[in-house]
Amino acid sequence: MFLPFSQIAVATLLGIAGGYYIYRPYFEPVQKSSDQQNQDFILLEHKSI
């Protein structure tokens, strides 16, 4: 059973895109917790006054 190159290329691209979509949080930088974001916002408010 032989698949045409175009079908192999599409399957490869879909596999790479699907893998990136599933493992996207692994590649993104760590987000701050909501408490730390609130503290940063409060500090920025006080500095601008």
From TrEMBL:
Keywords: Membrane, Transmembrane, Transmembrane helix. It comes from the Eukaryota. The chain crosses the membrane at residues 6-23. It holds the Pfam family PIGBOS1. This is Protein PIGBOS1. It comes from Gasterosteus aculeatus aculeatus.
